[in-house]
# Entry
Amino acid sequence: MGLYLRPATLEVALDALHARALTIVAGGTDFYPARVGKPLTDDVLDIRGIEGLRGIRERATDFRIGATTTWTDIVDGALPPLFDGLKLAAREIGGVQIQNAGTICGNICNASPAADGVPALLALDAAVELCSAAGMEIVPLAEFVLGNRRTRRQPHQLVTAVIVPKPTGRTAGHFLKLGARRYLVISIVMAAATIEVDASGGIVQARVAVGACSPVARRLPALEAALRGAKADGTLGSVATAAHLDVLAPIDDVRGNAEYRVDAALVVVRRLLDELGSRL
# Structure
């Protein structure tokens, strides 16, 4: 077995990362299943014992979600309707045991194209807080996840939080997932959106993201532009067209071919917007 470190403070963890290459583990829900039946030779940095990395904190202009915050913490958190999409995504990530252990930043850093949390976080305009012994930087989530299992985190850096800006007006979020069955399944297509409306129900700002249809989850900027100024109601999905999904690049795999994914994505996005529009 390799080295195992479980520091109690962020400073000790960052010093350890500065000194040597370490595999960072939080919930371990991807790390351990990938090593079943194999000797554990990784040098591990277990960050679960670091004080201050778990929990959701509301600040003046944003919400800070600590790196070791679990999906159950998000489901149970007293959060505004802005986070409804993220809460729904949290309920789709494995079973309750996985939700109790798996962490929001582990889901991001694992960088699976089918990571359920990423579209919901993109729709929240989330950013990633990266810390090292040299300091801290904030990176938009859209720039952090680079591809399948690839992020811009450097070996000496630790993801310490996700930052979600506060909207200025009435805002709600939603999430829909298509899989081969209802629960405990990898997504074929998933979509998330947040919509901000003015006093008359007109859309001021919209963010829509689709996952499992590209190497990384993608926002749909053309659709977002088309939604601005529209009335938020139960027919909102009619705004979405196939052309709005041109930024996607689905592949053929055992869960569905590319053509099916494109068709399914449009249906999922339209249903998502209809349901979200009817709540605003």
Notes: The first strand starts at residue 4 and ends at 5. The mean pLDDT is 95. Residues 258-279 form the longest helix (22 residues).
